[in-house]
Write a structure and sequence with these properties.
2 copies of one chain form a homodimer. With 337 residues, chain A is an alpha/beta fold. The first copy, chain A, has 12 helices and 12 strands. Helices cover 42% and strands 14% of the residues of chain A. Chain A has a 6-stranded parallel sheet, sandwiched between helices. In chain A, helix 8 packs parallel to helix 9. The longest helix of chain A is centred in the last third of the chain and has 17 residues. The first copy, chain A, starts with a helix and ends in a 9-residue tail after the last strand. Chains A and B meet through helix 4, helix 5, strand 2, helix 6 and helix 11 of A and helix 4, helix 5, strand 2, helix 6 and helix 11 of B. Chain B binds a DNA duplex (30 and 30 nucleotides) through helix 2 and helix 4.
Chain lengths: 337, 337
DNA sequence: AAAACCTACGCAAACGTTTAAGCTAATAAG
DNA sequence: CTTATTAGCTTAAACGTTTGCGTAGGTTTT
């Protein structure tokens, strides 16, 4: 590997001069600069990120921490979308991204924070983990700039999908279509889940609709089978709901399966409403009626804010940024009026 | 950040001793070692990957290069699965992964190879890119250990999905179910596409079936709309096929839509066969009949072989490893006999 | 013509490691 | 009792950068 030293000796200047020339410092003569740069190009010089980072204390490398319950990792559509746009945005600013390994079973593994320190990440984005995990909390509380997705900590910038708007929008839409018997299979307990559930109840109340207890069920996120079974229970109810809300689109597909297997039709007999707006759903008939979270927006906002936090720590505030999604009208909601 | 130096002065030993103690060298006394290690723990010492890499010329960091035509990035199910298992496997061996940025439009960007050199990746995995892109070729030809997915270069270890087996299996299965009029909408030209197409024709020939030219159509990978339109054309043929093969599962869904919109039924009127085995397809009815590529196997093999290449260069051969998938029977193929 | 000021470069230290080689004192061998 | 051996530690150089400070020579100001 060719280093500054090689260029220096070839140009008969000092290493310092070469460094300054390549970094375009003002105290190097124009023709010297040109000569050094030409030589650098000729020799195929590539700077060494490690050496650079030792001096500058900046790696231009960001850590990504992610893990969901189902351990779906990168196959989690929503997270993949967020990460993809995050990646694009940070790359524009010259940053790379590296995963913080989350294999908790590996012998000799280090904590998330230790890993982040080892790699000297300039910042970290955290999504979809167990936010109350002590290791996650430790990382969040450290001096490393952090942006979280969909979870609020004190003193940490958070990018939130607008779950309130989402649930309100869906409820309003469903009610506007004449539904009154609306069930909700919500996800496992988390701040997001609570927000949605509270909003669900509140918004229906606004419309003067009360929800019987047995209409509210719980099933993990992205668990088609769980949703399938809960749906069967709901369908067996004497007062069968006309519409069922699901925690996410995957679950909704599980629910649709249950409906069909009962010999019923979506949406003629039962309407189905998802949450997420996974990409593939647009390509499948019937199209799911759902609330599309703006994953791209979340990723981009996360990137911008994290970089601000890193590069302009003095002037950057800790913020909570809410990103609206939008209703995706599909074919799984029946018009009752 | 606490460094070896801090530990050294606290323990009244030299920095060298600390380094050796932490790396368990044999020429440090047992009690000294213990004392140093305890102090390191107390001070919260975390080694500096950059400094380490400068001395050892190893970063324990691997580059990931990926881009598909549709620019779906991480949202590409198949690649996400491959990458996920690759990631898990390399993390077990103490490696991290970092993306090689592929935004070709960014001003001041560097080539893939330059990026890889800048970060001093120990190795690189390449998937789904334009394999004849000069920048990719440059990277492959460099001295950096490389493993490619689904594309063969000379002198590069490749992990291949068994497209021959896949297509044979599908053809055999479809023919065994009594189909004789089988159309194939294949993907855009690539080595994978060619392999599948050749095998498709050959295997049908084996069964004594000839395929009319108009049954062979082209539509890009993962393009539901393209597949939709080609399917419409096929359905308008006087000799309408009884079964249509698609380049991938996404495309298959596009095809199914076309069938439905024509007022026909899958599989009663037209059978549909995909390729890939995307995860979500298992949750949606009707279940797609397809060939599930073993993405996990590909990722794991890629990881193992890349690490071998890095850690045991002398004794590791350049290989081409074929990973079989398996037939996924769904509900989209009609039994005609 | 002396004083002040640029311009363009070099010097050297520093970042945090690793490691070959050297040194000292204690122990084992002859 | 001398001499080789060994255990345990230190010294110092090196990896490839960046950057504050120094300085020599030239140019401008008084």
């Amino acid at each position: 590997m060719v280093s500054l030293k090689d260029i220096a000796s070839k140009c008969n200047v000092s290493v310092a001069t070469v460094s300054k020339a390549l970094n375009d410092h003002s105290d190097i003569g124009a023709e010297t600069k040109a000569r050094i740069r030409r030589t650098a190009r000729e020799l195929g010089y590539v700077p060494n990120a490690a050496a650079k980072s030792m001096k500058t204390n900046r790696t231009h490398n960001l850590g990504v921490l992610f893990m969901d319950d189902a351990n779906s990792g990168l196959q989690h559509d929503f997270f993949a979308s967020v990460l993809e746009s995050f990646k694009k945005e940070v790359e524009r600013e010259g940053y790379d991204i590296t995963f913080i390994s989350n294999d908790r079973t590996r012998p000799g593994r280090t904590s998330y924070l230790t890993h982040a320190r080892y790699r000297r990440f300039d910042g970290v984005i955290i999504a979809n983990v167990h936010f109350d995990d002590p290791e996650v909390v430790e990382l969040v509380k450290s001096d490393i700039p952090v942006v979280t997705i969909d979870h609020i900590y004190n003193d940490t910038t958070t990018i939130l999908s607008d779950n309130v708007d989402g649930m309100k929008t869906l409820v309003d839409f469903v009610v506007a279509n004449g539904h009154k018997d609306i069930a909700y299979i919500h996800g496992a307990d988390s701040s997001v889940t609570r927000t949605r559930l509270v909003t669900f109840n509140k918004q229906l109340e606004e419309h003067g609709i009360t929800v019987p207890d047995e209409y509210i069920q719980e099933s993990p996120y992205r668990d088609t089978h769980g949703a399938y079974e809960k749906t069967l229970e709901l369908l067996d109810l004497p007062n069968r709901p006309t519409c069922i809300f699901y925690p996410d689109d995957y679950a909704a597909y599980g629910g649709m399966r249950a409906v069909m297997e009962k010999g019923l039709k979506v949406p003629d007999d039962v309407s189905v409403v998802g949450f997420d707006g996974i990409k593939v759903a647009r390509h499948i008939r019937p199209r799911l009626t759902t609330y599309r979270q703006d994953a791209d927006g979340l990723g981009t906002q996360a990137a911008k804010n994290l970089i601000d936090l890193i590069e302009r720590p003095k002037t950057t505030l800790i913020k909570q940024i809410v990103v609206k999604g939008k209703l995706l009208e599909g074919d799984t909601l029946k018009k009752l009026n």
